[in-house]
Structure formats: structure tokens, C-alpha cells
Amino acid sequence: MSHYNTILSQLLVHVPRHHFEKLAESYECQRYVKSLSSWSQFTTLLYAQASSKDSLRDIQNALAAQEPKLYHLGLPNRICRSTLSDANAKRPWVLYQSIFYKLLERCQAVAPRHKFPFKSPLITLDSTLIDLCLGLFPWAKFSKIRGGLKLHYQFDHAGQIPTFLTVTEKRGCRVSHDLSVAQRHLVPQPDSIYCFDRGYYSFPWFRRIHQAGAFFVTRPRKGLRYVITGQHKQTENTAVLADRPIQLTGVHPSKAFPGSLRLVRYYDAKTARTFEFLTNHFALSALTIAEIYKARWQIEAFFKWIKQNLKIKSFLGTSRNAVLTQIWVAMCYYLLLSYIKFQSKYRFSLFYLHRIIKATLLERFSLIDLLSLTERRLPHIRDGDPQLSWAF
Q: Among the four 96, 105, 188, 332, which has the fewest Cβ within 10 Å?
């Protein structure tokens, strides 16, 4: 038998256990616990995320089949679905939110910088909707006949990781609006560049970013009233049709943002469309401003990835606490994958890393060696190939 711990056990090494226990104590997560500790719950839910388990019964049966390997995970010999269900429903979800931000600190310390020539942090703001059955999740009333949750993200292009998340429901509630969430929760950081779509379009919001010493890039709405206050900046790039400094006109816009703005008109040859961008950043080239907004697709790719590979569309419980617990554990798993990719300089995609970890989750094998595996060699792990290490 291999002397290595399981891949899941090696994955959990990167979770700050001492911080976890302190946070569990501060949130009183251990009160009335008899068999399933907070750490065991987190381990079990992380296993469910990495292995894509769809139900509590699937989790119970899969772990029961691997009982000899549960010792190194610190799990009890048997995980009952009723016990796990109770823990998901009653144990505060804020514990896993706090663990997410502890893992985020580690990720940001080793994350590669973004691909743009400037050094300023580049942040994209956006949200995505998770549809829910209103009959099963009556607390998640998104409209009169529709249930759902809205996940609002702050996405850092350095490492392509989420640096902030809040979850809202109830469409009629003011805080569910993208702009309201941003104004309520986010504090613009000096010298950062924030990119967002028209869902965050508000001149007072622009002014708040500007006064914080930060910058924004967005698209103007139709009917924007302004006067040109300077000359068109010459550029050799034929895709840039115009680059003008402007001043807002009209009583309310001019009072909300009295300073100068920059309007860039850009022609995209791939789509044969012309776009306009509004920004308060005058130092970067017009082409760079267009490329910044084009980079917004990365958060859309992130939304697609988490919905296809993480369990955030089907849930193990129907209570609000159970749903939020599962979402935050999913985000913790995403950061763990990212952290391993950053630290090991893993050359393949995060999707492929997730695939090989999923295939070998409870196998006793070196995680470092696993990162060098090819699809051809992967089946030999389960065959107990004694010469596997020579493949590296």
C-alpha cells in the first residue's frame, strides 16, 4: 500500500485548520455536536463538490464504500445522511464564508498578475442567477412565480479569482439590484480599475469611485448628454474611431459627476460592431480601454465554469442555511484548486486539474506527482502500477 495520504487529505492541508477551529468556536458551531464536527462537515461537503455528488444518499454510500480511507480525513467511520442534513440546515453558513476569505488571502499572495501592461489591479463586477424551484425553496422568491438566487461577484483578473461574493434573493428588495449591492458592500480601492456593464450605470457611483482615487470602464447608455471639451486624440490604430474628453450636461448628471470623462468609440472587426466606452482614466491608450472592457468575458467564463463543474445549481438541502453553506464550500473548493495551480505553476487549465483530482480523490498518491499525470497514465493509479513514479 502506498505511504501517501489520499488526494483529498492533501488538499485539506492547505485549509488553515487552526483558523477553522477558532472560527467554528466563535460562531458556536460545535454546540450540541455529538458525532459530526464542523471540520467533518466541511470535509464531507468538499468531497461532494470535488466528486460531483448529487444527493446525501450518494455521499453516504460513496464514503461507506471507502471506509478504510476515512481515517486520514478525520471523519467518523460512518456519515449518516440525516446527520449531515441537520448540520447543513443548522450550522451557521458564515463559518464557510469566513474560511473562503482566509483561503483568498493565501491565493492572492501567490496569484499571477493580469496580462495588461499597467500595474493597477483590474476588477470586474457582475452577477449571475441561480434558478430554484419556488415550491421547494419558498424563501428564495425572485418574482411572483419564480424562485432564484443572485450571486454578486467581484472578480480579480490577477489569477482570475473571486475576491468578494454576496448572495441576494427577492427581486422586489432593493439590495438585489446589482448597483445597490455594489454601493452597499464594495469600497473602491485607490488606483484600481473597475470594469462593469450598464447594470452598474450611475453617476453618483462613478463619482464615488473617482473620489476614492480609483478608475472605472463601462459603456454609456443611449441618450447620454455631453459636450466635447477637448480635441480628438490621434492614434495609429484604425479600430479607434474617436477618443474625446467630455463634460456631462443636464441638471442631474452634471451635479452627480461634475468632473471630466472620456468617451472612446471603438470598431470591433470580428463582430463588425461599433462600441462606446466611458471612463475616468485619461492615461491609458484608447485601445487599452477597449481591451479592458473586452476582458469582461473572463467573468462570464468563470460563471460558466462554476455552474458546469461545481454543485451550485442542485442542492443537498432546501433551507437557506443549507444552500448558502453549499455555495460557500463550492467557492472554497475553487480557491483551493486555484491555490494549487498557482503554487505548482500547473501548466494545464483549472478544468483539467479538477478532472484529475475528481478521478483520484480518495486514492493514496502524491498530489505533486498527480500534477504531472497525463490522461494515458491516469488509469494506472487504480491498477496499483509499481512503476508509475518512473513516468515522471
A: 105
